[in-house]
Specification:
This protein is α/β, with parallel strands linked by helices and 199 residues long. It contains 6 helices and 9 strands. 35% of the residues are buried. The structure holds S-adenosylmethionine.
């Protein structure tokens, strides 16, 4: 999975067109305008958070980084993704590390943002992510995939990259209240395509 995301970084920041392609591939009828409208709501909810010293885990190429209130660092295992992030608009330092073993002291930041990483992990790794977030911060904010009608809650997806390589990627899709209950948090935003939870 790590290698898949490192290679995928060559595609750059994940934009609305990638989102349309993703949901269409799962059989969801969706337009660019649908995704943009919901992404605007998600961004409004994110911007409504009080600024905090943060680490963003699973930052990837920086899809959300520049939108996150506060000052912090972006963390990912993928060197290629972090290079793209650094060339983008987010003015944050980056660190290449494992989100399940953060190079941050106990309570060293105020908030962990987990952007589209929780839902790609298996159960044991999810628990490790949450426990690591609790160790380093008092708040965990999760941005993840919603669950439009007809989309499975959890499955393995076959993916291919432009270099012709094939991959199996684990993916969950969430109803906001279910994810909030799972991490003992609150729903800040729950749409068809995005959920935002604070725990
Ligand atoms: C689905 S992508 C999300 C990227 C970006 N946040 C976004 O929303 O577009 C998941 C990211 O998590 C990273 N990742 C997965 N497991 C990780 C781990 N244990 N430690 C650090 N990064 C990890 C991958 O390299 C990838 O960049």
């Amino acid at each position: 999975m790590w290698e898949y995301y490192d290679r995928r970084a060559a595609q750059g920041v994940r934009g609305v067109n990638h989102a349309v392609e993703y949901w269409t591939g799962l059989g969801v009828e969706v337009s660019v305008a649908d995704i943009e409208a919901e992404a605007d709501e998600l961004v409004r909810a994110l911007r409504g958070l009080a600024p905090a010293r943060f680490v963003e885990v699973g930052a990837g190429p920086g899809t959300f980084t520049a939108l996150l209130p506060g000052r912090g660092i972006a963390l990912d295992q993928s060197d290629a993704s972090l290079r793209i992030l650094l060339a983008g608009p987010a003015q944050v330092p980056v660190v290449r590390a494992d989100a399940l073993s953060l190079p941050i002291p106990d309570q060293g930041v105020e908030r962990v943002y987990a952007t589209h990483i929780y839902g790609i992990l298996g159960a044991e790794d999810r628990r490790a992510l949450v426990s690591e977030a609790k160790r380093v911060a008092r708040e965990l904010v999760i941005v993840d995939a919603g669950r439009p009608a007809g989309v499975p809650a959890e499955h393995w997806q076959n993916r291919t990259l432009p270099d012709g390589s094939s991959w199996r990627i684990h993916r969950r899709h969430f109803e906001g209240p279910d994810l909030a209950a799972e991490v003992d948090g609150d729903v800040l935003f729950a749409g068809r395509f995005y959920v935002l939870i604070a725990a």
